[in-house]
Amino acid sequence: MSQYLIEPNQDTDYVIMVSMYEVYNDRIFDLLSTPSTAPNAMSTRAGAAIQKGLMRRPLLFKNTELSPDRKVVAGLRKIVCGTYEEAMMVLETGLNERRVAGTGSNSVSSRSHGFFCIDVKRNPHGRHNGRLYAMENWSGGTLSIVDLAGSERARNAKTTGSTLAEAGKINESLMYLGQCLQVQSDCQHDGSKPIVPFRQCKLTELLFSNSFPSSSNPSAAPKAPQKAVMIVTADPQGDFNATSQILRYSALAREVTIPRVPSVTSQIGAPLRSPTVNSHNGRSSPGDNYFASPQEIEHLTNSLTRLSEECDALALRLAEEEIKRSEAELRLALAEEKAEDLEAQVREECWAEMEEMLVREKERWRVAWEEERRRGERFLDGKLDIVAGRGMGSPVKTSPVKVR
């Protein structure tokens, strides 16, 4: 890609802006934003990943004042690049911020769909009195390179917990992508006006909202519908089921084109298939020697694949709900254990306080009893001193008695 050179117009200013974001758990996150680092950052890898997810803020995909006719990712950071090396440095920075995890089938498995966007803007110069001046009328286009995460089976990837929930979201978004392609392909085959259900997830909304009319207002198509090319890489030595599923997606995408008003010649030249009428009851029924066409077989195969994918998605959603229930039960058990520990701690503190009060009360009563005993002893000693003083003193003088 770095070998392609384009001669720019000397009377035009050009600017190239690069942005990168991902769709993780059906939410859009900017990969080039710099989240603030918390002071109490976690040291473990899982804790750092959890904290990183908490600091990131999801972006909105909506219409803005500058783009009323199409939806854009609002609040996305775009970096101006002057050289190919600068763009590659931005790409490496975004890839380092992308969500990855180790599974049983891949040590570095992508847990999100990555979007790498290149905006090319140009501003032609005007002339007034032989002088050039900038018109401030920027226009251009955007090239988006999307790296879709591959579908996973839980028994093959051996995912549990958060990785299992991430795989469920990835498989669900890919299933909705297949449904949108199938609906568009079926509508183009029978000539009906397509209403693509692209609002079921963020991935399909990002891919199809600017290409097909919405279900609320099907007649209001965007002014310049975006175009897309699907590039499929298949491993000849890989899993047969995964490779066949990828090829089915590519076969559906090959038949999808931008919706347009059907021409008169296409309507006239379309072959009509008339059913066989039974002469006995007048009812329409297929012929006796009816064989399914390859298109019908392909349609039934795609329907069967879609049902299988829906079953897998429901199974993963059930597993996710069971994981949430297990986590809730674990939190409940931890809360009960914490309550029991708190109750035991309160009982221990109350017992220690009552024991201390009892010791103080016993000491108070002991001191009071000792003081009472000493007071009694002093009183008794005083009495004894009085009695002893009377016994050891001089004899009592008696007055002489006159005897007559």
From TrEMBL:
Region spans: Disordered: 267-287
Family, similarity comment: Belongs to the TRAFAC class myosin-kinesin ATPase superfamily. Kinesin family.
Molecular functions (GO terms): ATP binding; ATP hydrolysis activity; microtubule binding; microtubule motor activity
Protein name, as recorded: Kinesin-like protein
Composition skew (Polar residues), residue ranges: 275-287
Superkingdom: Eukaryota
GO BP term (any one): microtubule-based movement
Record PANTHER family: KINESIN-LIKE PROTEIN SUBITO, KINESIN-RELATED
GO cellular component terms given for this protein: kinesin complex; microtubule; nucleus
Residue ranges of domain Kinesin motor in the record: 1-256
Record keywords, A-Z: ATP-binding, Coiled coil, Microtubule, Motor protein, Nucleotide-binding
Coiled-coil ranges per UniProt: 297-352
InterPro entries documented for this protein: Kinesin-like_fam, Kinesin_motor_CS, Kinesin_motor_dom, Kinesin_motor_dom_sf, P-loop_NTPase
